[in-house]
Structures are given as C-alpha cells and as structure tokens.
Please model this.
Amino acid sequence: QVQVVESGGGSVQAGRSLKVSCTVSGLKLSFNDYAMGWFRQVPGKDRELVGCVNWSGSSKYYGNSVKGRATVWRDNAKRVFYLQMDTLKPEDTAKYFCALDDSVADCNRPLYWGRGTQITVSQ
Model:
C-alpha cells in the first residue's frame, strides 16, 4: 500500500521561512516514475497547486500565488520531496498536501495523496 506522509508544518510568523517534507513508501514502481506536487487547501476553497517537479527534478513550475517564494525539489535516492516557502504571508495559511502524479512530467493527474500538514502564518 502506498503511503505518502507530509511533515514539517507548523506555526510561523509572517516573513519567515518553512520547509516541509514528503516521504513515500510502498510503491510498486520506482519513486522517479512519478512527477511530484505540493498543493494547498483552505476550508471552503479549492485545492491549488503550490509547485510541481518532474520525475528527475530537472523541470519545475509553481502556482502564481507563490511564484518567487516557493521552491520544490526532490531526492530520488531517499524518496523524499520537499517544499520551502519563503517570506511567508498570512494568506499562505493552509493545509499543504503532497501528491504523486500519474505522469512523469506534470501534476495534472494526482494519483496518491498524503493527509496533509498544516502551515499557519501569523502577523
């Protein structure tokens, strides 16, 4: 059974940085057979993409609301996927989810999801 587990969330003050991690286990295919994405969701709103990285880590793209402040990367040897958010704003408060995609190249068809980790940003 595939397990996707996020960690590293918490409460931070605006302007600070935070790094969250996503570990994956139980895959039948290789970890690098999947693109990986970070998404976030606030209650009552749609889930939105934060950042996506392709299978090798060579190609990345980000959601407009976090562009320039978010960095995603992966370590295929360790099967870990990371998100660092810089210059955090209160509007970044959300539950952050990690997902493996059905594609190696983009994050349009998430296949496996974690349960999420909460990031709360205060003034």
Observations:
- The mean pLDDT is 97.
- The longest strand covers residues 18-25.
- Residues 93 and 120 are 4 Å apart (CA to CA).
- DSSP finds no helices and eleven strands in the chain.
